[in-house]
Write a structure and sequence with these properties.
The protein is rod-shaped and about 180 Å long. The chain folds into four domains: 3-113 and 130-146, no CATH class; 177-298, CalX-beta domain (Immunoglobulin-like, Sandwich), CATH 2.60.40; 315-442, CalX-beta domain (Immunoglobulin-like, Sandwich), CATH 2.60.40.2030; 461-608, Sandwich (Immunoglobulin-like). The longest helix is centred in the N-terminal third of the chain and has 10 residues, at 89-98. It is mainly beta. It is built from one helix and 41 strands. Residues 99-145, 437-458, 604-627 are annotated as: Disordered. Residues 437-452 have a biased composition (Polar residues).
């Protein structure tokens, strides 16, 4: 398209140019006007708004407020004499209307009133009806006297007057006035479409059929809505086409169903213009109404109408709170977890306010003391504003000696305080998963507790030790309360011992270090020092001092060793008893300790008899007295007793 003009002045408003393809651009000073473009003002322009365009023939077109004009080459074709003149449609209409009034008296020719002049014959001619003289303004602002009476022309030959057909050039007939109105849905459920109709009507609202496809421009505006609440973004222009042969066109606005609690948000649709060259199309009805429609979107966040959306809450209305974290942790380490908010597709959902999530800790097979939390403890975590997940949080497991490999605890989301940000919050994902996490604690428990496992970073080996005890299995203590590993027993009595489990790495053996749980078995065995052990006593001559023992015994149960009474003065003889290394076995009911280590120190037992420095006075050390009888008998020369027949 060729250039036909340029914008010279633009004041007080916004004006546009639209080409034949429907492309619209906003005009600025210095912009060129192309042939067959329609120039029009914005409907919001004030009465003082105007645009002045200088055409290629130096003529100037002025449009005010919301006026529009098709710019084509015909605007440059009309001339009067040597002066090029152009008028707006309103100027022509006013001039035309003025001719219907009796204004001829106010008009004059360049030579004065024609009624005061004479013909060539010297006669005064009456004024002919319809013959007028007028003063027009040329484009330079000076007045030009246009003489229509040629009777006094300087030439005398007969003249032929040519009256150009100006009806289609300057005196354009006014276009019929048509009003464009819009109506449609004032309320729509989120996720549904709002339906709207743009109509061409007359002054009383009757439909007007258009004879050419006519575009009506409708501007979409967010009021409380945001971009992405509907298919349109703020200030989008929608081109609604009223087809030729019809009087109206219907269009829709698709709202987007989401999880945000934004009930009652509104958007607006407003007619801003049209491209009609068939009618003088005006925005709104005759009284200026029906120029726009407000539409309110209702979602599921209305507390007085929960689930009010079609079909109730859908997955698109819902935010899902999920928890993820460690499923297996070595005892003594920390398990980590995170809480997230996601949509139905698993995409992150960002909160605008700090959002508190409540987590419940539950022992499944763990016991209180296995982790930092006790059964039923609530843990509060926060998803900070601007984020879609909490920071990672820990559950510290507690390292111990107990064989509790495979114990489980559980973390479960019980509540989400979203502070009204979302229509609905559901715990778990769209499939109902990730509401909770089970965590299994792995420790050093093995089937062979005597060989340390390497599962944990630290080893807790329970110490097994044999100590002297009383007949009830109670450890014998020294003055400091420490358990003794030496004892004495009267000859002929039983000596007592007990094998106990003590806390890992201890070197002190007392009530404070003894474990509460005593379970499992070990082998104990006696060893001679200067006392002689035997399986069965057959002599009382001092060669058999105690009954030897190799026995599997239970931890915490009393062990006894029988000493043998004889008459021989062998006071102070000793033997030892100790645990066979790596002989510990888990109880048949299941492991109790992860790993054990055997203290190889024995208990030394001293056998006390009745020997004294005065053998004639019986000692009371033993419970039984073995008094040797002294008697003199007859003997031969070699000292051999002489015997009778028996």
């Amino acid at each position: 398209m060729s250039q036909v003009g340029i914008v010279k002045i633009l004041e007080g408003g916004v004006f546009y140019a639209k080409d034949s393809s429907g492309n619209i651009r906003e005009l600025n000073i210095g912009d060129v006007i192309l042939e067959n473009e329609v120039v029009f003002g914005d409907s919001s322009n004030s009465t003082s708004a105007k645009v002045e365009m200088e055409l290629s023939g130096n003529d100037v077109i002025v449009l005010n407020q919301g006026q529009q004009q098709l710019i084509d080459s015909s605007l440059n074709e009309v001339t009067f004499g040597n002066e090029e003149v152009i008028f707006t449609k309103n100027d022509i209409q006013n001039a035309w209307n003025n001719t219907t009034n009796d204004v001829s008296d106010d008009m004059e020719t360049a030579a004065g009133d024609p009624t005061q002049q004479e013909t060539q014959a010297g006669q005064e001619e009456p004024t002919e009806e319809g013959r007028v003289a007028a003063r027009f303004s040329a484009r330079d602002g000076n007045s030009t006297n246009v003489v229509s009476d040629l009777r006094d022309a300087s030439w005398t030959e007969e003249q032929t007057t040519i009256i150009p057909d100006l009806e289609d050039k300057l005196i354009e007939q006014p276009l019929p006035i048509v009003f464009t109105v819009i109506d449609g849905d004032n309320v729509v459920w989120e996720g549904n479409t709002g339906t709207y109709t743009v109509k061409a009507v007359d002054a009383v609202g009757n439909p007007i059929i258009v004879n050419q496809d006519t575009i009506v421009y409708v501007r979409y505006t967010n009021i409380e809505t945001d971009d992405n609440d509907t298919q349109y973004t703020h200030n989008t222009t929608i081109e609604v086409v009223i087809k030729a042969g019809t009087s109206q066109a219907t269009f829709t606005v698709q709202t987007k169903d989401d999880y945000l609690a934004d009930n009652d948000e509104r958007f607006n649709l407003e007619i801003t213009g049209n491209n009609s060259t068939e009618f003088d199309m005006r925005t709104g009805n005759q009284t200026g109404g029906q120029t726009n429609v407000d539409t309110k979107i209702l979602d599921n966040s209305n507390p007085s109408n929960p689930g009010g959306e079609d079909g109730g809450y859908g997955s698109e209305d819902t935010v899902y709170a999920i928890i993820e974290g460690t499923t297996t942790v070595n005892e003594g380490d920390s398990a980590q977890y995170i809480v997230k908010l996601v949509d139905k597709d698993g995409n992150p959902v960002t909160v605008t306010k700090d959002t508190e999530v409540t987590i419940k800790y539950t022992n499944k097979t763990t016991q209180d003391g296995d982790t930092e939390y006790n059964n039923g403890k609530e843990i509060k975590v926060t998803i900070e504003a601007g984020k879609n997940s909490s920071d990672k949080f820990d559950v510290d497991t507690i390292d111990d000696y107990l064989a509790d490999n495979g114990e489980k605890f559980n973390l479960e989301i019980t509540n989400v305080d979203d502070q009204g940000q979302f229509e609905k919050v559901t715990i778990g994902d769209i499939n109902g998963d990730k509401t909770n996490v089970d965590t299994t604690i792995k420790d050093n428990t093995t089937t062979n507790p005597n060989d340390p496992s390497k599962t944990e970073k630290d080893e807790e080996q329970v110490v097994l030790k044999i100590v002297a005890a009383d007949e009830n299995g109670n450890p014998i203590k020294d003055a400091n309360g420490d358990y003794l590993t030496v004892n004495e027993v009267p000859e002929g009595d039983n000596a007592y011992y007990v094998v106990l489990a003590f806390e890992p790495n201890t070197t002190k053996f007392n009530d404070n270090t003894k474990l509460d749980i005593q379970s499992g078995t070990v082998e104990v065995k006696t060893f001679d020092k200067d006392a002689n052990g035997t399986t069965t006593q057959t002599k009382e001559d001092g060669t058999q001092d105690y009954v030897s023992k190799t026995q599997k015994v239970e931890l915490g149960k009393v062990i006894s060793v029988e000493t043998l009474d004889d008459w021989k003065a062998d006071n102070g003889e000793q033997y030892e008893i100790k645990i066979t290394d790596k002989s510990y076995e888990h109880p048949t009911t299941g492991a109790v300790y992860e790993n054990v280590v055997t203290d190889k120190d024995p208990v030394t037992t001293t056998i006390k008899d009745n020997t004294t420095t005065n053998p004639n006075d019986p000692s009371k050390t033993e419970k039984d007295e073995e008094q040797v009888v002294l008697k003199i008998v007859a003997a031969d020369e070699n000292g051999n007793p002489i015997k009778d027949a028996n």
